[in-house]
Amino acid sequence: MIKNKGINNSILELVGETPLIKLQRITKNLKGSYFAKVEAFNPGHSSKDRIALHIINNAEKKGILKKGATIVETTSGNTGFSLAMISIVKGYKCILAVSDKSSQDKIDLLKTMGAEVHICPANVPADDPRSYYEVAKTIHKKTKNSVYINQYFNELNIEAHYKTTGPEIWEQTAGKITHLVAASGTGGTISGAGKYLKEQNPDIKILGVDAIGSVLKKFHETGEFDTNEIKPYKIEGLGKTLIPTATDFDVIDIYEKVSDKESAFAARELVKKEGLFCGYTSGAVIQATKQYNALNMFNKNSFVVLIFPDHGSRYQNKIYNDSWMKKQGFL
Ligand code: PMP
Questions:
Q1: How far apart are CA 181 and CA 199, in angstroms?
Q2: pTM, rounded to two decimals
Q3: What is the ipTM metric for this complex?
Q4: DSSP run (H or E) holding 26
């Protein structure tokens, strides 16, 4: 079925099949050609529509999700938006535990989308009862007829990207892709899309993007969960202070860590040079791509796909706001 041809029965039919756009200017000084998979074209404006819909459809099929059920989740905002949108269309209640690092824009959006929002401190260990992981678990336990999406530890998160994002990229590039650069949060995107692509061509390199302050890169390299790596950072949705099972570390060839400041500037540069208004982690992906280029990962024949996870509107009062940038000491 061609998307947008004829009538859609609901907004949910528009999830996925996002465009691949050639980057014209921002990667001009890097070796190879660069293409952006712009996930903001999903109806919920992020890649999280894919996993939210896949997990809910699966729960319905298995009979776990019954009429009038409540959907519970931990989320930096994007998954929450997708779940709230799907809950409205399908008639579920949606309760979200959100980290206080999430932008006010994102939190307001979730409320607009009819979700009940619980705000939890970001800088406490994952097993602390105040953490958004533990708060969501408690809500799930206390709420009858509820389903906990559990994106960090749900294999359907990887499967959603294995079944959609990966095949789309393979088809859109006519199999010419040589490298995938993707942000790693839950790890669902990079693991699912990466696994599919490597199955088509094992030579494709899967390049991860992690945040300075997160444990993922070190864990990938050493197998060690090193708490010395953990530091507060500003980028939402990137990196982790725990090891999610939704990340398949074997699929990922290498990680680069990026800073809050350089990622913010890269996102702003993306707007100025390409007219692409994307989120903070899209800036992180651009920044990591520059770092990978400096590490000689690419040559003139490289065909590099970058995944841009969400839309810039969610960061209007953060990286796109000069006062916020000044407050962080970035400007
Ligand atoms: N960017 C943003 C803005 C996100 O919200 C997320 C998800 N936490 C990611 C990137 C990372 O995607 P994934 O969870 O699939 O690794």
A1: 17
A2: 0.95
A3: 0.99
A4: none
